[in-house]
Write a structure and sequence with these properties.
Blueprint (H helix, E strand, L loop, with lengths): L1 H64 L5 H14 L4 E6 L2 E2 L21 E4 L8 E10 L4 E10 L3 H46 L17 H63 L4 H25 L10 E4 H15 L5 E6 L5 E4 L1 H17 L5 E7 L5 E4 L28 H11 L3 E7 L3 E7 L7
Parallel strand pairs: 7-9
Antiparallel strand pairs: 1-2, 1-5, 3-4, 4-5, 6-8, 9-10, 10-12, 11-12
Length: 467
């Protein structure tokens, strides 16, 4: 029984605090908002009165200047309007003084010091009566040496605000009563289910994976038992997750090592022979400048393929990128020249619409490999041919869009995993290498795809002149 009362108290007090404090805050905010609205309406009303008087006086001034009215008659009409307008005061200057009326106690009105200021509305900051604000609107008419004044007061406890306060207090009292009743009801009925829930969590902690939650291990009631049970489950599942991740990483690295060894053995030796043969042919043949450039390009590409193999072998321990500023348009164009030759018969078309002003701070070899892998991925997705478009965005993005079969949404998170492929001939490493190279060069890559309509890869790397 004692334990039950402890649970009820621990539920009741926080619940009341959580409910009552917002009620007070909302009530205060509602009252202050009402006062601000009330003040705004009064100021707007006074400004409208002042603008009406000023407009009428200006018309009379113009008629007087044009000779349509005598000056004295125009002034009389203006004074009649002011006298008929509630709370508007007209001051006439005689020399350097005005004829402002004295207050009932013989002193000058509180707003007299503000007459020296320009046209506008002013709030009395000092000497005002508590629980109210005092405002004065002033407009000078230099032609007739008049000043129009509209003083008024705003009470914090004005009658409209009192009505609002009554309604707010009523709502707050009702909310407090409901909160107390709900708290008593909940605290009484929650203690028994908590015992069953604690026992259930103790059993569940050995088999299921719970959601992350805040734990209160210092409690000595049923909630404390529940917290310890959840802690036990989280510990078990955390160890299981770490073990699974280690096993998965080890399997991937083992498979990658086996494949990398095979590639190094099967490709590096033929590449060395090809490179040697190319160099011998280039030295024996009499080549013009164009063909010499082609041989140099072949040799350069052989070296790049050899570097790719080295990068594959070091995929788990990749080399640091040698970054420099490159022209994205030019590097992509150089890469597409090679791809166009290889895919000329596949009805594949490449469109380079990248801005010539786009420059990335990136490793050139890494960037070429990224473009090649994404292009080959797009080509494989278009067995019937189509266009691959390279374009740039306003914020330095690089878009690679194809017209292929698209990728299912459930495969988005898997396509960058090692050895994951949807084709019988793929190795599942192309996009994995792309993802790793992008991250190495402080870049980002995202994917948008719709089955049957194609895929768009978006790349972003540090742009020249930006952080």
């Amino acid at each position: 029984m004692k334990q039950k009362r402890t649970i009820e108290i621990k539920i009741m007090i926080p619940f009341l605090i959580v409910v009552l404090i917002p009620c007070l805050a909302v009530g205060s905010a509602a009252y202050w908002t009402g006062f601000q609205s009330y003040k705004h309406e009064r100021l707007q009303e006074a400004e409208n009165q002042l603008n009406t008087v000023i407009s009428y006086v200006n018309v009379l001034e113009r008629q007087s200047l044009r000779g349509e009215l005598m000056a004295e008659h125009a002034k009389k009409l203006a004074k009649d309007l002011v006298s008929d307008t509630e709370s508007v005061i007209l001051l006439e200057y005689s020399g350097s003084t005005h004829d402002a009326d004295l207050a009932e106690d013989g002193r000058s009105p509180w707003w007299e010091p503000y007459l020296a200021k320009g046209n506008g509305s002013y709030k009395r900051e000092q000497g005002s009566v508590s629980l109210q604000e005092e405002w004065v609107l002033i407009h000078h008419l230099p032609t007739w040496e008049w000043t129009i004044v509209i003083p008024f007061r705003l009470s914090y406890i004005a009658e409209p605000l009192i009505d609002i306060q009554k309604n707010t207090l009523l709502v707050m009292i009702v909310a407090a009563i409901v909160a107390v009743q709900c708290t008593i009801f909940l605290s009484h009925h929650l203690s028994r289910p908590l015992k069953n829930l604690a026992a259930f969590c103790q059993r569940l902690g050995k088999d299921e994976v719970p959601e992350e939650t805040d734990l209160a291990l210092t409690r000595d009631d049923e909630i404390g038992v529940l917290a310890h049970a959840i802690k036990e489950m989280l510990d078990n599942m955390e160890e299981k997750k770490l073990l699974e991740k280690r096993m998965e990483r080890m399997e991937r690295l083992a498979s990658m090592g086996q494949m990398a060894s095979g590639i190094a053995h099967e490709i590096r030796n033929p590449l060395a022979g090809i490179k040697t043969t190319t160099q011998v042919l280039a030295s024996r043949l009499e080549l013009d400048e164009k063909n010499q450039a082609l041989f140099q390009g072949v040799t350069g590409e052989i070296d790049r393929v050899n570097r790719i193999i080295t990068n594959l072998l070091n995929l788990a321990r990749p080399r640091d990128p040698q970054t420099r500023t490159i022209s994205v348009h030019d590097v992509v164009n150089q890469t597409l020249v090679l791809l166009e030759k290889e895919n000329k018969e596949k009805n594949i078309w490449f469109h380079n619409r990248i801005s010539s002003e786009l420059h990335y701070l990136v490793d050139p070899d890494h960037f070429k490999q990224i473009i090649i892998n994404l292009s080959l991925n797009a080509i494989n997705a278009m067995p019937a041919g189509g266009a691959i478009t390279f374009s740039s965005g306003l914020n330095g993005e690089l878009f690679i869009q194809d017209e292929g079969t698209g990728i299912a949404k459930e495969e988005f998170e898997k396509i960058f995993e090692p050895f994951y492929t949807t084709t019988s001939t793929g190795t599942g490493l192309g996009l994995t290498m792309v993802h790793q190279l992008v991250l190495q060069n402080n870049g980002e890559i995202t994917i948008q795809s719709e089955q049957g309509k194609g895929t768009v890869f978006t790349l972003y790397f540090p742009v020249q002149g930006r952080e």
